[in-house]
Amino acid sequence: MPLVSLSQPSPNAWLDAVLAAFDEFLIDHAANERKASAMAMSLVAHYPDRQELVTRMIDLALEEMNHFRQVVRLLQELGLVMAADEKDPYVNQLRSHVRKGRDEYFLDRLLSGAVIEARGEERFLLIAKNLQDARLTTFYSTLARSEQGHHRLFLELAHLYFPASTVEARLADWIAIEASVMQSLPIRSRLH
Asked: What is the pLDDT of residues 123-148, one digit of tens each?
């Protein structure tokens, strides 16, 4: 199964912002892991009749919740506190491109999940390669591998439920949408 190939790399300014305010990034990272778990469970709630999806999304939700726990423990070790929940402009702009209609909505949820996870993989790898802390380097390298598995999972599910030609055509749209959204947002010390 091919992986998502993002059309635009994250700008160097994003990495600079994260490294300059890493505590802020960590707090946002924790929130994103919690939201990723909730998103997986949302798909379970929307599509309880799709057995393979249900099984795989429950596993994903548990994995994302474990990542959340790991990041929260890291925050606590550093004396940091989670912030109040805030909307993620990146995710919200992506969601505005999700089409109506049962099948269109389902496919777009899977493919938007794939591109979000692909961007997470790319960014976690950038962080891992540029941190001076060996423990954090290992942690973010491990998370990058998980993100790769996640975007592969979303693509596999899309191919399970839809014809390959439909998936590939709409994935190309989502790759372009994601690049446009990423470029339109201000640089912040956030995952997205």
From this structure: 999 999 999 999 999 999 999 999 99
Every domain of the chain and the residues it spans = 12-82+90-184
Residues 6+ apart with CB under 8 A from 45: none
Nearest C-alpha neighbor of 2 from the set 170, 122, 164, 184: 164
Q: Please count the residues of the chain.
A: 192
Average pLDDT over residues 83-87: 88
In this structure, whether the domain defined by 12-82+90-184 belongs to CATH 3.30.420.10 is answered with: no
Long-range contacts of 100-103 (CB under 8 A, 24+ apart): 103/162
Q: How far is CA 177 from CA 20, 25, 27, 93, 153, in A?
A: 28, 24, 26, 9, 20
Q: In 84-112, which positions are buried (b, 16+ CB within 10 angstroms) versus exposed (e)? A: eeeebebbebbeebbeeeeeeebbbbbbb
Q: Measure CA 95 to chain center.
A: 13
With beta carbons less than 8 A apart as the criterion, state whether 37 and 65 touch.
Answer: yes
Q: What is the DSSP letter of 97?
A: T
CB within 8 Å of 74: residues ≥ 6 apart? 26, 139
Distances (CA, A) of 143 to 37, 63, 106, 137, 179: 14, 11, 26, 10, 22
CA distance 192 to 185: 9
